[in-house]
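hiii so um. not sure if this is the right channel but i have a protein structure encoded as tokens and i wanna go backwards to a sequence. like what aa goes where. can anyone help
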């Protein structure tokens, strides 16, 4: 099963948010597409994203 590696199409950019120590791992992973707009973002030593919804 792991031998059938699916890749993301080049026309779809991906953004991966990860911890600093995993940056190189994700840059070469199957989760990043070859699209030039794709990027891996390191946000320190934590793995939580927090945001607020705008008030309506």
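sure thing!! here u go:
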């Amino acid at each position: 099963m792991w031998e059938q590696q699916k890749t993301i199409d080049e026309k779809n950019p991906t953004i991966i948010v990860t911890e600093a120590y995993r940056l190189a791992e994700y840059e070469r992973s199957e989760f990043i597409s070859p699209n030039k707009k794709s990027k891996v973002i390191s946000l320190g030593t934590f793995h939580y994203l927090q945001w607020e919804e705008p008030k309506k």
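oh and The longest helix spans residues 23-27.
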